[in-house]
Specification:
The protein is an alpha+beta fold. Helix content is 30%, strand content 14%. The chain has 21 helices and 24 strands. It has a seven-stranded mixed beta sheet. The radius of gyration is 28 Å and the shape is globular.
């Protein structure tokens, strides 16, 4: 009989009632639990819990009963709050459009639910279709101007709210300001639309700070809350006296003239602009009074604020859709602070603020002090070998001097190709595979310098010490390398690029390398003897929180597009087929997240941007603590080494060698058109340490397939036997001779 009772108990547990996916997430966050904590308690993977909350999968016994028990207890502690109905202050002659149905995928983008520290999980939210139809419709329901009464919210689907946990920012991180039927409207996240009473730009700034309740909580304890962002459409620009588009002269200057009437209005109202002036990303502020900040950022898409390379046609979207797209990016990454590159850099600082409040002194007062683990508030000089051409450290070099590898650190991404072998020419296909978020994966767990470098003569190499090392690696022979702790492999070194140079050429003597490059030479089984080094004893894993936030933003958005982390190789390839068409706006968020990674790393060594700069003089970026070419070099070095390690493992196991490598894309000759035709999988498991299909950063996706005849024809057409075909593998279109730039 007891066996029957057990069977009945198991049957009941298999159907334990669960709340909807969005409610599961709300309950977890209400109690301050992370996905990792829940996963550990239930003895499952973090991604598994994420799938339950996204509605992608459902828990099964025995975890289901325990999960249901946890949610039931949390529901008692945090009962659901009914949506706020529109108040009597809503405009009566604008009937509400029925709210969009709630999706089980995830919640809408909410800036106010952003994590409060780098270790907290980023908001795993999804964009919702805006409840307002387009093009440029009259809004369904808006609040009255907030100065006339409490803001009334549009009725939202179950589990969706324009607000969040922080009442200061209950209307989200940003608003798209537009003009419809003569009325100025602010389109916020979650379908909320506000009436805007402001008649001038200074009044708009005042309204935003005093009444709009826009902004985003800080990402780290010692940090600062994000300033509200207003995105001005062309119609809004016209209403507030700004040009809809810039003239060619203004576009080249990156700003409107200082004497423009709107700038004069701001000056009369005691508002200031940053040194960059009034451009496509303008910051309008008053000096901070104590801890109170008075700053609003403007984004003007018609002035090319949203680069089409990263934001596609976002600038052309209706206001509600644009608020939806940018709101999701803000919730998952941060409120945009400029280009994706600028935002990538600002995210590093937001997660590791330069200062923090000290412990109280004898009088009970706190003071600003250095925040451990940050880059500090003051810039540091780079090592001479790390300085790019034109840097003040190189002012004494003769004019037109070309520095040799023994004088300058050159850590760049791969751009390498070779002719096909006879055997490869007999294969019908060239298949490209691309590493997901390669530079983010390169930053993950990487120890980088935090302070200034120390010069050392004849150092003993330490793979745990970040820095730049002058060492001769020409003796490393790729025909015989270690592929495991004590396992050597015989390879065809002529078919492999050198891991030590971007062009894949074998070094011929001493050269400067970042720590990951030298450490890889040791890993391959060879001794190293540096001549000198610039090392950083003050170091740490500065980029870990940055990586985690961007990784989670990328994975959450890909999951919303139907590409999850738990898919088999075949399922992954099928899910990636046409994923961008499932929700084009979400696909734009994916592109923006990836651009934030690459751009943020690139900004660590920003070069002069006009302004009358001359070689040998300092430029603006050098004044930033985040101008750190050594960190950029370390990330790129590790990314390139990660790629080389995979191709060596693949060659040792399969005898197959890459035909070309361009940054994070590798090209192989194959008997079939799919990556599965040449990637070794056994019982569904990939080669350890080799390429693995999947959506996670560091794993690979299919980039494209062309015929071998196509490749040879292109090289013959341009008389370039080493033309890098990886550059064109995606769609096969070759627009010009490969210059290698």
């Amino acid at each position: 009989m007891s066996e029957l009772f057990d069977a009945v108990d198991a049957l009941i547990a298999s159907r334990s009632p669960l709340p909807p996916p969005a409610e599961r997430r709300r309950l977890r966050q209400a109690h301050g639990l992370t996905l990792d904590e829940v996963a550990a308690a239930l003895q499952v993977r973090r991604a598994t819990v994420g799938g339950w909350e996204a509605g992608k999968t459902e828990p099964r016994p025995p975890e289901r009963d325990a999960y249901a028990r946890m949610l039931k207890q949390l529901a008692r502690l945090y009962p659901a709050v009914a949506p706020v109905p529109p108040e009597d202050t809503a405009i009566p002659d604008r009937p509400a459009v029925p709210a969009a149905p709630a999706s089980s995928a995830a919640e809408p983008a909410q800036a106010c639910t952003a994590p409060t520290g780098p270790a907290a999980e980023p908001a795993n939210t999804a964009i919702r279709p805006a409840a307002v139809p387009h093009p440029h419709p009259r809004p369904a329901v808006t609040s009255r101007p907030m100065s006339r009464g409490p803001a009334a919210k549009k009725a939202a689907p179950a589990g969706i709210s324009a607000g969040g946990a922080d009442p200061r920012f209950e209307n989200g991180p940003l608003a798209v300001v537009d003009v419809a039927d003569g009325q100025v409207l602010a389109y916020c996240v979650g379908g909320l639309v506000l009436d805007v009473p402001a008649k001038s730009l200074p009044a708009l700034v005042e309204w935003t700070l005093r009444e709009a309740k826009l902004g985003q909580p800080k990402l780290s304890g010692p940090g600062k809350d994000a300033d509200p962002l207003l995105v001005l459409t062309g119609a809004a620009c016209e209403r507030y006296g700004l040009p809809i588009t810039l003239t060619e002269e203004e576009r080249l200057a990156g700003r409107i003239p200082e004497g423009h009437k709107v700038i004069r209005q701001l000056t009369r109202a005691d508002w200031q602009l940053t040194k960059r002036g009034f451009g496509s990303w303008a910051r309008i502020y008053r000096p901070a009074q104590g801890s109170e900040r008075s700053c609003v950022q403007l984004c003007i898409p018609s002035w090319d604020a949203l680069d089409t390379r990263h934001w596609a046609d976002a600038a052309q979207l209706p206001p509600a859709d644009l608020a939806r797209l940018l709101g999701t990016y803000a919730a998952r990454v941060m409120t945009p602070r400029g280009s994706t590159a600028v935002t990538g850099l600002e995210l590093m600082t937001a997660l590791h603020p330069p200062t923090r409040a000290s412990e109280p002194d004898a009088d009970g007062r706190r003071h600003s002090e250095h925040n451990p683990g940050s880059l500090g508030k003051d810039p540091v000089d780079c090592a001479p070998c790390e300085a790019p051409d034109g840097h003040p450290l190189l002012a004494d070099l003769p004019r037109f001097h070309q520095r040799t590898p023994a004088e300058v650190l050159v850590e760049e991404a791969y751009d390498w190709a070779r002719p096909l072998t006879d055997a490869e020419c007999l294969r019908p296909h060239l298949v490209g595979i691309d590493v997901n978020m390669a530079f983010a994966a390169g930053a993950n767990g990487l120890t980088v310098g935090l302070g200034a470098p120390t010069h050392v003569k004849n150092p003993v190499f330490d793979p745990k010490l970040p820095g730049s090392w002058l060492v001769d690696l020409s003796h490393v022979d790729l025909s015989r390398v270690k592929v495991a702790k004590d396992k050597w492999a015989e390879l065809d070194g002529e078919l492999l690029p050198s891991p030590f140079t971007p062009k894949g050429e074998r070094p011929t003597g001493p050269a400067w390398y970042a720590t990951p490059t030298v450490a890889y030479a040791v890993e391959l089984g060879y001794d190293v003897a540096p001549v000198e080094a610039w090392v950083r004893y003050d170091n740490g894993r500065y980029l870990d929180g940055w990586y985690n936030r961007l990784r989670d933003a990328y994975l959450a958005t890909m999951a919303d597009l139907g590409v999850g982390v738990d898919l088999s190789p075949q399922e992954f390839l099928a899910a990636m087929d046409g994923y961008r068409q499932r929700d084009p706006q979400l696909a734009v968020v994916v592109s923006a997240v990836k651009a934030t990674v690459k751009g943020g790393i690139g900004k660590l060594r920003e070069r002069p941007r006009g302004e009358g700069w001359k070689p040998g003089q300092p430029w603006r970026a050098l004044a930033r603590p985040t101008w750190r070419p050594d960190i950029r070099a370390a990330v790129i070095s590790r990314t390139r080494i990660n790629m080389h390690r995979k191709i060596v493992k693949h060659a040792a196991f399969t005898g197959q060698y890459p035909v070309a490598i361009l940054s994070d894309c590798a090209l192989y000759a194959s008997d079939g058109p799919s990556p599965l035709d040449f990637l070794p999988y056994k019982d569904g498991k990939p080669l350890p340490g080799g390429f693995k299909l999947g959506v996670n950063p560091g794993l690979v996706k299919w980039e494209g397939t062309q015929s071998v005849l196509w490749g040879e024809g292109v090289r013959e057409q341009f008389n370039a036997p080493n033309l890098n075909l990886a550059r064109y593998i995606k769609d096969g279109t070759v627009t010009d001779v490969d210059s290698g730039e």
